[in-house]
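User: Okay, second chain of the day. Same drill as before: sequence in, C-alpha cells out.
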Amino acid sequence: MNTPESDGWHKTACIICALNCGLEVQTNNKDRRITKIRGDRVHPISQGYVCEKSQRMDYYQNGADRLNSPMRRRSDGSYEAIDWETAIREIAQKFKAIRDTHGGESILYFAPTRAATSAAPTATARRRPSACSTAPTRSRRRRPASSGSLARC
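Assistant: Same drill. C-alpha cells below.
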C-alpha cells in the first residue's frame, strides 16, 4: 500500500491559528525544507481543508527575515543577537521587577492563537477574579468584544 510517509509525505499539524488543521508536508532530502503542502484528508477536524496561511508554511519557517535567536534592543535603538539563556534571565528579572512593584496580578499572559501557546513554555501569574475573568457563567455565551467587556481590562 502507498502511504503518505512512503511517498515522502509527513503528517503534521499547522500551528498558525487555533484550529491546528491537519497537514501533510513533503520535504527535500538535502536541507529538509518544505517543498509541498496539502491538507490531511483523514484529519478529524480539517478533513483535507487547507488555508492560504498554511500553504506558506515554508516561508514562515525559512524566510530570510525570520529571527533565529533572541534580540536585545541597544540604547541607540538597534538590536543585537543574544543567547537564549541570557534572554530568559533578563526577561525573568524584568517580570520580577514588575511583580515586586505592582503585584503579580498586574501580569497577564495573552495569546491570540494557539501558535503562541503550543510552541513554547509560558510563564503565567495567578490572577484574581475580576471583570476580565474567564470563569464560566450560567449562560456560557461569550459577549462580542464590541460590547466593551474587555475595555475595562
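Helices lie at 52-55, 57-62, 84-102, 114-118.

User: Thanks, on to the next one.
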